[in-house]
Specification:
alpha+beta; homodimer; 7-stranded mixed beta sheet; 2 domains; Phosphoribosyl-aminoimidazole Synthetase, Chain A, domain 2; 60s Ribosomal Protein L30, Chain: A
Chain lengths: ~350, ~350
């Protein structure tokens, strides 16, 4: 049994919100419309970043646009999110960030003070990551043709020699380590957007993961793959890895960390934390003999304190992600299908 | 007399269309809001691209978002324009393009067929430039929160050793060479957008300039500066160079090539071709002893057939661009002030 994407034109010849979800509709749009137009070996690898060889150096290159709504939320804003998102896409390729670009699409009438706040947030987040914003662009569209501000951050990073990370590298027996609790970012955005009254404020986990990656690589460079489970959540990330590596992945429900307050909101709204977006969490897949040492190194890092081994890679049912539930049963964890939470990043 | 920018908050505490014009309001927004937030030496150079040293290689990095309206126009579409725009920003730094990223912000309801057409146009344009789209991103916003499709293309290129190009390098006595006629892109967009009935269809000049740059650099690497006069037109580009190099620039009105049909529309609408956007033209500033050889090389290239020496760099009135008119008088050519033609790229 192998995961297959529906055709995007099934049911619609127009773009749907779900085409931006990071789930099956996004995958189908990429597979059927975008990839055939640009096809080349680097893009075909479908990693979060492309790695180019320049003068003997491995240079990672990535891009992300940000349309998060609201622009300001507990734990961050569109500016810090854009920096963290692109730093993390570089970091998941093992790269230390070298330089960022920032392009802004502003809607006529957007408050200059909000723009100043966001620019300062970008600058502060980049500075905290030790990376410079070296180039940029600003466009303005008429009132009603945008939504305040959209950002694009692209980034360049340097990959240390000897790394070979890919979502196609997972092997049966590998351990699956998650760096901390799931769903904080998605629920923080949802709660602010919908004006939910909660007992405590749930903050986004938005954070840059490059130093956590350094801590992991200091233990061993024998890592198969690293990914940050953003849009589509852990479920979609693991499905991508299972499909590309042609392996099965089994996770233990009781091992997957979810904060009590996040779990509460998820239950209230009928959401599964496995599908909710994160912006400061990562998954590492690695040979089992390194799992304990990597786990210890992650737990010693401020952004990996809640790290846990949540599953294993299997040879049975390639392409399929299974969850062993708290009751001992098994269920299939599909890729996100629709548009659970639009404009989460 | 030195060019100074008005404060963006003069008259408005909100973003205006003119903040995206490429003229004085854009410059003020950059100077007062954006640059202070990210400040670093590379960004402070204010070139169209940043050049990083990686393992002994000079790597150019640039970004541009595209919000052109309409999406399809005579001579191109938003897809080819996005590829050419970023290839040209690399080329103006002397770089040959290595890799592009493409990020799309789609509005819910955008026709899938238009998306396919644009993706294919991106792929074809990139392929014609000999550059690969190696990484990408897709976001979707709700109907009414965008305008069909916005693109961002970022790019990486390799700068040959020994080049030192900068808008701060122009020296008195230098020649100013323009690669061809002004205003084709802006007038093509305007005519299509406003439904002007013209005797002939005016096509955008959208084209990739990296091979024209190669032809120039094959003659001499002693080039001071290259720029493509896009938003804000030749007038704004020369003002930027004059300000950054602290020199004067004098251009001859009779030497500046403008197509008859473009001039006709400009006269009809009260536009000055010096301010109208181009997407396949470049200015080179270089020592006078190389001017004839570079001009000949440009004219031998398909994209430089209309090249002309249009002016000289002077030591008088630093920061000021002057035009000698057909009647022998002089006039000051200011930077574009307002929002002549919004959403031109």
């Amino acid at each position: 049994m192998k995961f297959t994407c529906p055709l995007p034109i099934q049911g619609s010849d127009r773009v749907l919100l779900g085409h931006g979800s990071g789930g099956t509709l996004s995958a189908a749009l990429l597979r059927d419309i975008v990839m055939p137009a640009y096809t080349n070996p680097l893009l075909a690898r479908m990693e979060d970043q492309a790695t180019l060889q320049i003068n003997g150096a491995s240079v990672a290159f990535t891009t992300d646009s940000f349309v998060v709504k609201p622009l300001f939320f507990p734990g961050g804003d569109i500016g810090s999110l854009a920096v963290h998102g692109t730093v993390n896409d570089l970091a998941m390729g093992g790269a230390q960030p070298l330089a960022l670009s920032v392009a802004m699409i502003l809607e006529e009438g957007f408050p200059i003070e909000d723009l100043r706040h966001i620019a300062q947030s970008i600058g502060a987040a980049a500075s905290a990551c030790g990376v410079s914003v070296v180039t940029g662009d600003t466009k303005v569209v008429e009132k009603g043709s945008g939504d305040g501000i959209f950002l694009n951050t692209s980034g360049i990073g340097l990959v240390p020699p000897g790394l070979n990370l890919s979502a196609a590298n997972a092997r049966p027996g590998d351990a699956v380590i998650l760096s901390g609790s799931l769903g904080d970012h998605g629920i923080a955005i949802l709660a602010r957007r919908e004006g939910l009254s909660l007992e405590s404020t749930i903050e986004s986990d938005s954070a840059p993961l490059h130093s956590l990656v350094s801590a992991i690589l200091a233990v061993t460079t024998e890592i198969r793959c690293m990914r940050d489970p953003t849009r589509g959540g852990l479920a979609s990330t693991l499905n991508e890895i299972a499909a590309q590596s042609r392996v099965g992945i089994t996770i233990q429900e009781t091992s997957v960390p979810v904060r009590e307050d996040v779990r509460g909101v998820c239950e209230l709204l009928g959401l599964d934390p496995l599908y909710v977006a994160n912006e400061g969490k990562m998954v590492a897949i690695l040979p089992p003999e390194h799992a304990d040492a990597v786990l210890a190194a992650m737990r010693a890092h401020p952004l990996g304190r809640g790290a846990a081994i949540v599953g294993t890679v299997t040879s049975t049912e390639p392409g399929l992600v299974l969850q062993r539930t708290a009751f001992g049963t098994r269920r299939v964890v599909m890729m996100l299908a629709g548009d659970q939470l639009p404009r989460i990043c």
